[in-house]
Structure formats: C-alpha cells, structure tokens
Automatic annotation (TrEMBL):
Gene3D superfamilies: 1.10.1660.10, Vaccinia Virus protein VP39. Keywords: DNA-binding, Repressor, Transcription, Transcription regulation. Transmembrane segments: none annotated. It comes from the Bacteria. One of its GO terms (molecular function) is DNA binding. Residues 2-70 form the HTH merR-type domain. The keyword Repressor applies. The lineage of its organism: Bacteria, Bacillati, Bacillota, Bacilli, Bacillales. PANTHER family: MERR-FAMILY TRANSCRIPTIONAL REGULATOR (PTHR30204:SF69), REDOX-CYCLING DRUG-SENSING TRANSCRIPTIONAL ACTIVATOR SOXR (PTHR30204). This is MerR family transcriptional regulator.
Length: 340
C-alpha cells in the first residue's frame, strides 16, 4: 500500500505539517516520486504511527530518534517514560495536598509549607545508586555469599526470603509489588501462587535480568520514594535487602509510599538489615570493635540499617498492625497488615 502525505495524515488523524516535521527531524524517510511527491509504504506508515503514539505519552523527538538510531529496546524507554509520568503524578498530588492545607489554614506559615513541598520534590528526584547495581547485576546471584566470612550480610538470606514468602500467604489473582526486586529472587516465588507481580528496581540491568528469567513479572523502573504504581492497587508488598539503602530520615517517606499503593487490609513484609534500636546497634558495633572486625563496622556504617523500633512505630502510626521476627543480630522480618 503506497499513500501520499495527505492520505497518510488522514489515515493517522494528524497533519501533513506534523509528518513533514518528523521527516525534517530524521525520524522518517519517505520515498520521493519522479515529481517529488512523498510516497509512504506500509512500513513507513507503521513507523509514523509508532512515533505519534510515543509523542502522545510524552517522549521527545530526540528520545524517539535515539531509540531508533541506537537500536535500544523500546520497552526500556517506555519503562522510563512511565517512571517519569508517575513522578509527575506524585508531584501533582503533593502540590494539591499542600494547597488543600493552605486553604484549610490560611493563617498558617505558607513559607514553611512551600519549603516542605520543595524538599519533598528534591528527595524524590535526588535518588542515586551509590552501590552501582547495574554493574553488579550480571554476577549478583553468583556473588551472593551466604557463609564463610567473619561478617556476612547475607547470612540467613534463604531463611529470610522463605519467611517473607510464607508470611504474605499470596492467593491467586492478587497483585503483589516487590520493591528492589533485583534479579527476582523473592518476587518470583509468588508466581507459582498465581499472583500478578510488579517488580520495581532502580537498576535497569537488574530489571533486564529479572525480566529475562521471569517474563511474567511486570518490571518497572523506580525506587522507594517514587513507586510507579497507582494508589491502593497492591494486595501485598514485599521488599528484601533493599530498605537499608534508604537514608534513615527518608524511611518514613518510603513507608508512606508503600502505604499509598497498598489496599485496605493489604500485607507488607520487610526482610532487611536492621537493629532492634539504637542501643542494640551500639552493642553490636562495640562487639565487632572488640573482635577487631573493622570490615564489619565499615560495612554497617556504609549503609543505613534501620532502627526497627522506629519502623514499627511509624507503621503503627500509619494504621498497621505489626509483628516482628529476628533471624540474627542484623537480619529481621517486619510483617505488617494494613487496617481497613
């Protein structure tokens, strides 16, 4: 099927001017007839339809061109575009919430409310991967050492994942969100239960490996402070060995984000590195110091191991009923059920 530009514009509900613009940008290259009329073959029409669709969801012409020229997978760019749109949505929700507060209490300190809004936006946008998980992705499971070291953060790893799996008690048709899914070691377990799993990670390489191993998992680019999931859409949330990458003062924001996407009566399990409280942290660090185990001290201080008592208090304030289990000095399971 060969069409001229006006016919293509009519077929795709666009304008000849728009089509010529994409041609100028190098996105499409129609053939030319002997009298210099543009001729569009079926593959060119399909490509133009794709370009128009990508523009509708907010991708720039440069992003589209880079995708086409570099042979990059479209799914990768769509995933990032979805993350951007969710970020914009969260920002709008924050702004509306701040406006509601300002209207409800006009005599309040508007400057402080605006400052809080700015800081929240910066926190959501400033997330960075200090630990280079893209580089770790390919060999992550091979490098996952569970024994044989004087200090081993993954001691009890298999037990922690199994307990998390059992506590959630997933059912057929439920939607679960695994935050920091990595290569899929925890989230994939729920597939056999017939649950739909959304896997979220900040690392594109981790997501790619997870997707290659478990195509059924809906992998999404995101992080604790900006979850690319709609409000009240998850029946359960899991996260393992990930929350300790969130700074202590930001953990409450992470819990609020999880609360946002969790349905009433939903379940949450956190299997992670943490201490009972500040006193226990000091005791464990002192014990390692007495042993001369500087590697252990450096490893702990390089991360943000949670204060479990603070996590529990914050979850209870958000309306959760909380239960805890301790696997070893630094590995804990926090299970929380959201009240209706």
């Amino acid at each position: 099927m060969n069409l001229h530009i006006k016919q293509v514009a009519q077929k795709l509900h666009t304008t000849s001017r728009t089509i010529r613009y994409y041609e100028e940008k190098g996105l499409i290259k129609p053939e030319k007839s002997h009298n210099d009329y543009r001729i569009f073959r079926e593959e060119q029409i399909q490509l133009l339809q794709t370009i128009l669709s990508l523009r509708e969801i907010g991708m720039s012409t440069n992003q589209i061109k880079n995708t086409m020229e570099n042979g990059q997978e479209l799914d990768h760019h769509l995933n990032h575009q979805r993350s951007i749109l969710y970020s914009d949505l969260l920002e709008l929700k924050d702004m509306i919430g701040a406006l509601d507060e300002m209207i409800a209490s006009p005599s309040g300190d508007l400057f402080e409310k605006a400052k809080f809004l700015k800081e929240l936006k910066e926190k959501r946008q400033a997330w960075t991967d200090r630990w280079s998980f893209d580089q770790q992705a390919v060999t992550y499971n091979v490098d996952l050492k569970k024994e044989g070291y004087a200090f081993n953060v993954h001691e009890g790893y298999d037990e922690a994942l199994e307990r998390a799996y059992q506590l959630i008690d997933a059912s057929v048709g439920e939607t679960g969100v695994d935050i920091g899914i990595g290569t899929g070691n925890l989230g994939s377990r729920f597939l056999e239960k017939g649950s739909r799993i959304i896997g979220i990670d900040q690392s594109d390489e981790m997501l790619a490996i997870c997707k290659s191993h478990y195509p059924e998992i809906d992998t999404r680019h995101g992080h604790f402070l900006r979850l690319p999931v709609m409000d009240h859409s998850a029946d359960f949330i899991t996260t393992s060995y990930a929350l300790h990458h969130v700074e202590e003062q930001d953990k409450i924001l992470a819990l609020e984000e999880m609360n946002r996407i969790l349905k009433p009566f939903g379940r949450l399990v956190i299997a992670d590195l943490m201490f009972d409280d500040d006193e226990e942290r000091a005791r464990v660090l002192q014990a390692f110091k007495n042993q001369g185990n500087e590697n252990a001290i450096e490893a702990i201080e390089d991360e943000y191991y949670a204060d479990r008592s603070r996590l529990v208090s914050n979850l209870e304030n958000l309306g959760f009923q909380v239960d805890c289990n301790k696997i070893n000095d630094i590995l804990h399971i926090v299970f929380a059920e959201k009240k209706g």
